[in-house]
Amino acid sequence: MLLEESRLLNGLYASLDATEIPMRSMFDNIAYKNFKHNDWSAMMRNKFCIRFEDNEMFNDLIKMLNAEKQKIGKEFFKFRRSDLFVVLKSLPGRMPRKMDNFVFLLNRATVKNLYILDLEPAPISDLFDRVNCAEYHKNN
Predict the structure, then answer these.
(1) How many CA atoms lie within 13 A of 67 on its CB side?
(2) Which DSSP letter does residue 112 get?
(3) Where are the domains of the chain?
């Protein structure tokens, strides 16, 4: 009875499956170009394919990433999207999808820069203190 629709749906799944890897590769290439040009907000959007509530990050974070590109920015770029979702899932509460919060989370999971730690708002800091974000980072 729904044989035709079932075949059509299977064809759509196969098509999506075939395009997933090239799309991921395209976004990774765009994110790498953003990284090279110090466009940190665009790198975060393209690397992690997340729709953030805001489009820009806090100016002090941008300055820190520009100053420490080879240490902090590179570690953020190397962080895998799948690891990010594992960390997010492990959080005991909901985190607003603000780009700054993701920078704070990546900092906790990678370099643990003290200046960035000091910029964390108290509610976000309390949320992250309940989880060891670094244990989910597989690129160490």
Answers:
(1) 9
(2) -
(3) 3-136
Q: How far apart are CA 91 and CA 108, in angstroms?
A: 13
Q: Which two tokens mark 4?
A: 């035709």
Please give the pLDDT value at position 7.
87
H-type alpha helices, the chain: 3-36, 40-48, 59-67, 74-78, 81-90, 99-109, 114-119, 122-129
> Other CB atoms closer than 10 Å to residue 95's CB: what's the count?
16
> Per residue in 34-85, pLDDT tens?
999 999 999 999 999 999 999 889 999 999 999 988 889 999 999 999 999 9
**pTM: predicted TM-score of the whole model, two decimal places:** 0.83
Structure tokens at 100: 């700054």
Distance, in Å, from the CA atom of 51 to the CA atom of 55, rounded to the nearest integer, reads 9
User: How far apart (Å, rounded) are the C-alpha atoms in residues 72 and 96?
Assistant: 22
Work out the percent of the chain whose per-residue pLDDT is above 90: 62
Residue 113 CA: distances (Å) to CA of 7, 72, 84, 86 = 52, 8, 18, 21
